Amino acid sequence: MVAITLLSVIMIGLFAAFSTTQRALRMSASQTDVLEGARNTMSLLVRDLSEAASTDQPYAINLLVTNPAGPASVFSMPRPGGGAQDNALQDVFFVTRKNDLWTGVGYFVLIRTEGVGTLYRHTSVMAHTPNNDLSKLYGNFTLAQITNSARVAEGLVHLVVRAFDSVGNEYFPPGSTNDIAILPWPTGFVFTNQAMPSYLEVELGMLDPKVYNQFKSMSPAAGVTFLRNQIGKLYLFRQRIPILNHHEP
């Protein structure tokens, strides 16, 4: 009886240790998936945005950041210690130039319901000639569909881009307006003519894949309620990007 009791205690202890290790491995694998996906997404954004250039045309857009749904679409997730994480999903458009070709690059988020969506990348190309109206590149982006765009990442909860000058001052802090900004953050801003900021800061927020899969199986109303309580499963990333072809207004 003593031997059986001791063996039972040992087996229970081993099972508990195995269960804890297995749970830790699952959490580690989930975090690795998120980190890898976010790292790839951020690398793509950094590579593209660092090459943004000015068109030097009065009506052509060099860089535009906008939240199509407006400030009311900001999705807040309460923090356990108080306060909230305010998430917004912005679209980003800019142009790059290589040799005699201009490329319009745009990122847009297809939102399943309030608070989360899938990120897509759209490009269009135009030859560099004096008579070409480069404003058409942005026009092409406004007509972008998922059928002619590349899917970049799923489970996106937060994508915000901010602009900074050469000494680190933000052009459009939250709630501000000036001659360059067409709308206050988090709705967006635009640079035209020769103007381009010295730095852009990208904030990216992605859900844990397991949580995202749970969310997809819910109705929109239930999904929103579910998401608001998942602050612990939201992974935030931030990176500041120097713009090689900056030209401050």
Features:
249 residues, alpha+beta, eight-stranded antiparallel β-sheet, two-stranded antiparallel sheet, 4 helices, 29% helix, elongated
Proportion of helical residues: 25-40%
Sheet/helix structural class? alpha+beta
Number of helices: 4
Following the backbone from N to C, one meets helices and strands in this order, namely HEEEEEEHEEEHHE
Distance between the termini: 85 Å
Query: What's the total count of β strands?
Result: 10
Q: Could you describe the largest sheet, including whether it forms a barrel?
A: 8 strands, antiparallel
**Rg result:** 23 Å
- How confident is the prediction overall: mean pLDDT? 83
Strand order of the largest sheet: 8-1-4-5-6-7-9-10
The overall number of domains is 1
Q: What general outline do the C-alpha atoms trace?
A: elongated
Percent in strands: 25-35%
Low-confidence stretches: none
Question: What is this entry, summarized?
Answer:
This protein has 4 helices and 10 strands, in the order αββββββαβββααβ.
Describe this structure in words.
- It is a single chain.
- The protein has 249 residues and is an alpha+beta fold.
- The protein has one domain.
- It contains 4 helices and 10 strands.
- The strands form 2 sheets. It has an 8-stranded antiparallel beta sheet with strand order 8-1-4-5-6-7-9-10, with helices on both faces. A two-stranded antiparallel ribbon has the order 2-3.
